[in-house]
Amino acid sequence: MSVLVAGGAGYIGSHAVHQLLDQGKQPVVIDNLRTGHKASLPKGAVFYEGDIRDREFMKSVFRRKRIKQVLMFAAHSLVGESMEKPLEYYDNNVFGTQVLLETMVEFGVRDIVFSSTAAVYGEPAEVPIKENAPTMPESPYGETKLGMENMMKWSGTAHGLRYVSLRYFNVAGARLNGRVGEDHRPETHLVPIILQAALGQREAITIFGDDYPTRDGTCIRDYVHVEDLISAHLQALDYLQKGGSSDVFNLGSNEGFSVKEMIETARQVTGRDIPEQRGERRPGDPARLIASSEKAKKVLGWEPKRTDVENIIRDAWNWHRKNPQGYGGI
Ligand code: UFG
Fold it and tell me: How many other CB atoms are there within 10 angstroms of residue 158's CB atom?
């Protein structure tokens, strides 16, 4: 029995593929390689290149492999880009999920674990954010992810589909062996950009705004290690297999770190000089996002092991130092 990993060649999906193989499971990866990297996949993984919006492609994969459960990572995921290209986000994220769910229903596949986001909450009234906080997305990205969650909910009511939606906060870090890590083109995420500055690939890290109402004026985020994040996905697959009901969980660390604190920690971990410069606020950035992940711990038995910012940065640094050109150098 196989686990379909949609978007399995992306940063987060590829970590899932490796952990599935570690656990003796059989991942079947699909990815259109628009942002994913084939080089991130381990040798034993079955891979089909194609797009989740392509009905014939999807059917052909489900016909060829006996898919038991689905991990869904295939989506566009940048808040800023979604403001400029909302329709592309609806097409890829919402329509893509529609085709995936249609295919699951047609082939009688019941369980899906879905990659959702803190962006479904918008600017929170209070932190840490619990799962029952109001969902008021402030970008097409957050809106499409919420729409995808709702599509799964209604498919559950009508067709018996069961889902776990995992709302990620800020994911960073890399696999311990330094062979799998983050490589977005162009890179927009804080941790890899700080480390590119540490490597001298950028002149400096630009801090997007230092006049937020936070302890040092810079934005506060909740960072979760990608390997811990994936452990929660595998636990969610088990939970669904054992008959757990559809549900939504936050994945974070219950702690917030400011942009300046992240840069300072990176200086300590890398021992490198990391020049910083002050820039304008980035539109759409909430001042403070911190998750309450108590529910995932209680219900799924999630126990993050490497989720503290030093480990996150150390593991990411290991990847960046070994692969300064990302997958381009492999
Ligand atoms: N930042 C900088 N300089 C940079 C890059 C980022 O100061 O060069 C700041 C941002 O302004 C923000 C923080 O660092 O305050 C983190 O930014 P990221 O771009 O790394 O992450 P985001 O919090 O914007 O986004 C992440 C995920 C999204 C998800 C969102 C949920 O990448 O997919 O969390 O709010 F939607």
Answer: 9
pLDDT digits (tens, 9 = 90+) for 60-77: 999 999 999 999 999 999
Predicted local confidence at residue 1, as pLDDT: 79
CA distance 174 to 169: 16
pLDDT in tens, 226-256: 999 999 999 999 999 999 999 999 999 999 9
If you take atom 27 of ligand 1, which residue's CA is the nearest one?
Answer: 170
Please state, in angstroms and as integers, the Cα–Cα distance from residue 115 to each residue in 33, 167, 321, 326, following that order.
18, 7, 28, 23
The reported pTM is 0.97
* Mutation test residue for ligand 1: of 208, 278, 289, 290, the one with most atoms within 8 Å of CB: 208
DSSP state letter for 92 = I
282 Cα: distance to centroid of ligand 1 (angstroms): 9
Helices (H), 160-278: 190-198, 226-241, 259-270
2-6: strand order across its sheet: 46-49, 26-31, 2-6, 67-72, 111-117, 162-168, 247-251
